[in-house]
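Cross-check.
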Amino acid sequence: MDSSEHSSCTTILVGKNASYDGSTLIARNEDAGVAVNPKKFVVMHPADQPRNYHAKGSQFAIQLPDNPQRYTAVPEAVDQNGVWGEAGINGNNVAMSATETITTNSRVLGADPLTKSGVGEEDLLTVTLPYINSAREGVQRVAQILKEHGTYESNGIIFSDVNEIWYMETAGGHHWVAQRIPDNAYVIAPNQTGIQEVDFNDPDNFMFPADLRDFVKTNHLNPANDFNFRKIFGSDSQLDHHYNTPRAWYGQRYFNPESVQGKSPMSNNLPFICHADRKITIEDIKFVLSSHYQDTPYDPFAPGVDYEKTPYRPIGFNRNQELSIMQLRPYVAKSSAAIQWLAFAANPYNILVPFFTNIDETPAAYGNTTGLLDSHNAYWLNRLISLIATDHYHSLMDQVEAYQEKEMGYGHQRVAEIDKLAAKTSQAGLIKVLTDENDKTADTVMKDTQKLLTKLVAQASNRVRGSFTRAHY
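Predicted model, tokenized:
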């Protein structure tokens, strides 16, 4: 699959002192170029990890180390176009989300062209996550791959561990910068180069290739006196103003209404590093990543609005494929600290399900997705719900929202129950217990979701065009 098919994601990062419980939180919608692009949730074991990796959608190939860790991933259900592992947590509780596709301006691309044999979104999780023991090591591994192989696209790549979050942005074929997200901050990244001022004397918070400043100076790339990565390497196009920037504007409006007061959704000076005036929850992240400009003139679902004429691309829409929020908790044992909250299909209608990642296998309803529609599969079940609810938004959303509130409560309940069980379980038996408990969580959620689908089908069927009742006479 061409990389443009996966070029519309939205990322939210929340430092440990900005989150509601002291966890690091990294989240990203994976959006495709089409509405239906089936995904599955899997555990990759060391024996299944390739040693000679060859991409299917590009010319990239690499020899991989012999010591991979177990890790979770959310790859394509049909792998004819490659893996596209997207989001996961490894056995050492390091999380990775890859990638937030971004743009690089023509001056940079002329000085450092993209390379067809380089690494890309299809590959990055597979060739990185099994081999790193910290978020910082994630940046270092990708940096080495970029140095040796380059890349054929510009990307934002996210790493976290229980202490740190790092956001890495590539520019051109071989250049990049990574910034440690401050513990008390949050970030919203919408397919644009985001990192701003780079402090070259602060290795605790910035990483970059050794030649970065010389490269910029030699090629006359800096239009200003300071070193602003976004202004030097990024773009500021009409597409950005309508497709990308408004998503950051709406997210910042949600967390800090005063910060965007008077600013246009097309503003080109929204900050990268932001600070909320309250702690950020899982529900907050889900709301923003499901949003479509509610309570603004730009909501495509507002009464009387022609959705085809709305000026800005929503965050939550039909091309969402999966959302992973990776939560690394500091207040429980490391062996049960990592949770991947997962949602499939369009985010305005789905719910997050908490899956502990120290497991042998994922629940069948989430792991056995195929290219054929199956209402017993989580991806397809949620895709059906989104199809029906979108076309009957105002008559069905009360049912959807009641379901969402109930299931989020259930998710938090399950985390608390499993934490208590894990605390009483020996390390030798913990993986099996967490695997079994994930199955129980998934079973309940699937039953509730199938009940929701039944209600929506019944109600929507009474409202289809051409319906007729004897009450007309």
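The longest strand covers residues 320-328. The mean pLDDT is 95. Passed to J.P. for a second look.
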